[in-house]
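WARN no homologs supplied; continuing
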Amino acid sequence: MKTLVNKLNGISNSTKQLLGINLVIFLIFSILRPERFLSFSNLESMSFQFPEAGFLTLGIAITMITAGADLSIVAVANLVATINGIILLNKMPEGLSDAQQIPYIIGCFVVALLIGIICGSLNGFLVAKLGIFPILATLGTQNLYTGISMVLTKGQGVFGTFPDSLVFLGSGKLFGIFPMPFVLFLIALFIVFMIIHKTAHGYKTQWFGSNRKANHYNGINNVAVVFKTYIVASLLGAFAGILILARTNSAKYDYGTTYVLQAMLASVLAGISPLGGKGNILNILLSVFAIQMLDSGFNFLRISSFVRSSTYGLLLITSVALEYFIHRYKQKKEIKKLEAMAELSSVE
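OK structure emitted
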């Protein structure tokens, strides 16, 4: 019992809160729609769906650590899905074997890599080099990337039969058991965790979000830190685009319009401070799953998308407000503590 208590004490407050949120959501919908929510098919469906939002949340989360945000990440994903979809439908011959499809699948990842680097570089240049406020800069690039997708498709979607090897990434199961999207998300989660929490760049990113001036005076190149962060964010969005194309067998310029809102909410719930500088990347697994359960529950209750968007917006506003007031409270408490220590030393 003592060992269990010690382990629980070692868990951060944000992780405990997330576990509680997941439990509450699970219990609510288990009571309201037990026959559908608790079904194996629903749990399996969620494991295929939420990795898309997971990739996008990881991208937004790392930019939030720098006290920024990447609103263009979904547009990057849709651009990658659109271009790859067009290439595969127009350039890949029909009737190819799995082995013959591999070069085209590799080509999809190369295209995603290039688009991610280009889009991330533009975002990074606007934010880091020109000093444009991140939300304004990425709102502009969001419309730019969406516009390119619209022009390429003339406002229509990209539909067709894509290679089985690609579809496997979005709808297949590893060893016939583990959903591939979930496996890919876990790999991405681990890589981003290592980058943010175990590398010099990750520490610089957190320090920049906490105090960019101190970061600068410590000899750290703030421009390079932010620039690299937005490239990594766009790369995550780009690979999410491959996942979207593989799972839905289609690409649309306006796919996932609520993903940005959900990703920002998931980031805040995970403990990523919108003020920058802190957050546990591993918590994103719990926060994204909580929102996916909420979304699935809303579907079973037949709650309209407008009400859902309003709910997510309200939750985001509430979470950000709470984070702000908690931050202010801790600041005031620290100031009072320092003042008390100063008074005590002056009396002595």
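The first helix runs from residue 2 to 9.
OK
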